[in-house]
Amino acid sequence: MTDLFVPPFPEPLRTKAGLVRRFVRGWNSWVHTLFARSYTMKMGRVALPRLTIHVVNDLAIVARVLDDPERRYPKHRVLNAMLGPLIGESVFAANGKDWADQRAMVNPAFAHTNLQRGFTRMLGAAEDVVAMMRAADAARPLDVDPLMTHVTADIIFRTIFSVTLSPQETQAIYKSFNRYQIEAQRGTMLAINGLPRLWYARAARRSAAEIHAVLTRIMRPRFEARQRGESPGQADIMEALMDARHPETGAAFGFEELVHQVSLIFLAGHETTASALAWSLYLLSEQPDLQEALHGEIARETGGGPLTFEAVRRLEGVRNLFRETLRLYPPVPFLPRSVLVPEAMRGRTVDPADLLVIAPWLIQRNEANWACPHAFDPGRFADPANAEAVKTAWLPFGQGARLCIGAGFAQQEAAIILATIIRAFRLVHPDAPRPELTSRLTVRPRRGVPLWLTAREV
Length: 458
Ligand code: HEM
What we know:
This protein is an alpha+beta fold. It has 16 helices and 11 strands. The structure holds protoporphyrin IX containing FE. Protoporphyrin IX containing FE is lined by residues 91-92, 103, 113, 264-265, 268-269, 272-273, 276, 331-332, 335, 396-398, 402, 404-406, 409-410.
């Protein structure tokens, strides 16, 4: 295992940061506030002026908190303050019975993302982005990060609304989302440190309103047509959300609720997958042998013909590349929870106001769970010795009751996009510094992922 490639991640601080240092480093990225022992400890505590944080890495407690059959560990109010302007009280942010009712309403919408039906839409979007890559200026490295945002946003548009997304619309949304992430992150940093955050809160509301405006332009005419009793009859997520009825009252979502659910599905459904895909392409660019092996796997499984639903399911190597990327760069690095009543955990008392953090970022890089945890080794997912770790210490999609609704969707679209790109190009990392990461709502490459792409013979 000595010559495994260790891709970049922020050098942990040697000792726990004091208040000021933590604030400065956390201003742009949460992961940068971690220190060496964060990666090995079972549980840690950080006291901020307005918030006590408990970081839990103990797998038994993690399972208890996330499985949560009695709904005793709601999401923390910090999360709602961060995401509220964009996603309101939609299923990702809701708690208790309200969450259970909403999840029951939203679940059928995801039957529409039924993997087989979504396949053709996903493949179409993947082929379109490869065409954009072929058309790009070959004289300089191409930044694949915004392209991954484009293709995943396009897929989510095709599956929510049955329409494709123009590069101009992607740009508008991309910019508003990036601004929103920065403003929400900084507003939260100020709030938990007891400082006023008014300016950032207002700015975040403005960016959220810009995103809502793009979505509303599409949603309003369909909603109104539906109110008039006309149905466009499109088998997509928007239609299923309009069909959804509250399990007890039988009420449908109102327009504002719909905008929040769609904003959430749009945010959760593209930003995360885009991040993991950009990292996957970076990792591939450093591993020419792996590229050849995966190219061979794709050729074998497709027999040189088009990608099919069945062939994509058989691409174990491509899937393991994506799983390993999600281990090293989980797009959602921290899951925030709280307790309803004071609770003892490893000899400490966690109070209802405290923030309980389950950190896929730390659990997946902890040497007690994974050998050579910072090294890139997609083969570990094919090793039966890691079966238990895959179950308990690989949680990029969360775990238990609130497991990501889109986990299957994301892994299928990722396999399709990666396979389409690997078939079309050889990727080489330029002679330039490796990508740096920043972690706000998601873990993203800080200055993009510029790569040389050489077209393969078709
Ligand atoms: C690689 C891609 C993705 C990653 C890493 C990811 C990660 C996550 C995680 C960690 C959670 C649970 C958060 C928590 O427990 O605090 C979650 C929830 C959720 N995700 Fe994903 N997700 C991805 C893709 C998607 C896609 C494609 C969709 C929809 C099309 C989606 C929709 C949702 C929704 C609606 C929830 C809320 C579930 C609930 O609270 O009941 N996600 N996701």
